């Protein structure tokens, strides 16, 4: 079973291609996190929100990443970070073609 981490926060930008250019190094560094499997980046320019959906091998890896990432975002001046952790239901996710590995 894998663990899904949902993170969102208020952000004034950048968004779209500017986000790609500004956060490419950050995206590459996430690949090195312990237990990391994948991330889907999320953004909503209209509501000034950003974040991501992550998949980790263990609950501990997801919790450790959330703690570290929250501190990193705080350092960028983002003080309100919402994080939720979910266990995945692999059998049902497989039926719906979910990428768990």
TrEMBL record:
Record keywords: Monooxygenase, Oxidoreductase
* A single GO molecular function term of this UniProt record: monooxygenase activity
What is the recorded name of this protein? Answer: Putative monooxygenase ydhR
Organism listed in the record: Psychrobacillus insolitus
């Amino acid at each position: 079973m894998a663990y899904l981490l949902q993170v969102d926060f208020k952000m004034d930008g950048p968004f779209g291609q500017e986000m790609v250019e500004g956060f490419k190094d950050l995206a590459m560094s996430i690949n090195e996190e312990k237990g990391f499997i994948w991330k889907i980046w999320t953004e909503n320019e209209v509501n000034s929100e950003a974040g991501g959906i992550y998949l980790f091998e263990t609950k501990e890896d997801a919790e450790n990443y959330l703690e570290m990432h929250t501190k990193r975002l705080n350092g960028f001046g983002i003080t309100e970070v919402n994080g939720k952790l979910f266990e995945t239901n692999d059998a049902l996710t497989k039926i719906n073609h979910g990428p768990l590995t």
